Amino acid sequence: MTKLFPLILLLIGVGAGVGAGVFLRPEVVPVVEDMDSKMEEAGGGEEIDEGDPASEYVKMSNQFVVPIVDGDSVKGLVVMSLTLEVIAGQKDAVYTREPKLRDSFLQVMFDHANIGGFDGAFTNASNLAVLRGALLEVSQKVMGKQVTDVLIVEIARQDY
After folding, report:
1. Virtual CA dihedral for 89, 92, 96, 102, nearest 10 degrees?
2. Helix (H) or strand (E) holding 135
3. Residue 160 per-residue DSSP state
4. Model confidence pLDDT, tens digit, residues 47-77
């Protein structure tokens, strides 16, 4: 009898757990398929802004790789992908001038790395704002006012 007592307690515990789970199961709520009514319920009946129709986005064809140098040795790499916001109809002009843009962007990124811009909290909003501003300035020197913004789409640092 003493050997059956733990088995009986186990069965009672499992049964009580299953019963509690069934009894306390949350109520099933039907899925609402009408998106407009969901937005109105949430209080946001206005449309989502899908950007300025007078602008286009041009993804630079390759990533930028910037070495982080400490003394005479490379202590890491930063890899970035950029997208340019340009006035509508200017995509081809950007692709035509891409080699010059890439060279100018790399020079800005090398300067940023040399002043320690990629050290520590390099993704801090103020650090990225400085880099983004410098990239926009140099892109407007190459392309004129056709470029309205520079977007940092991806950024990663690999330390050695």
Report:
1. 80
2. helix 125-143
3. -
4. 444 555 688 999 998 999 999 988 888 999 9
**Start-to-end Cα distance in the chain:** 66
pTM of the complete model? 0.65
Looking at residue 160, what is its pLDDT?
A: 84
Q: Is the dihedral of CA 94, 59, 57, 67 positive or negative?
A: negative
**Which residues touch 2 (CB under 8 Å, ≥6 apart)?**
none
- Return the C-alpha torsion angle 70, 105, 99, 143, nearest 10: -160
Contact 134, 53 (CB under 8 A): no
Tokens matching residue 86 = 């340009």
> Which DSSP letter does residue 145 get?
G
Which of 105, 88, 103, 104 lies closest to 147, judged by CA? 88
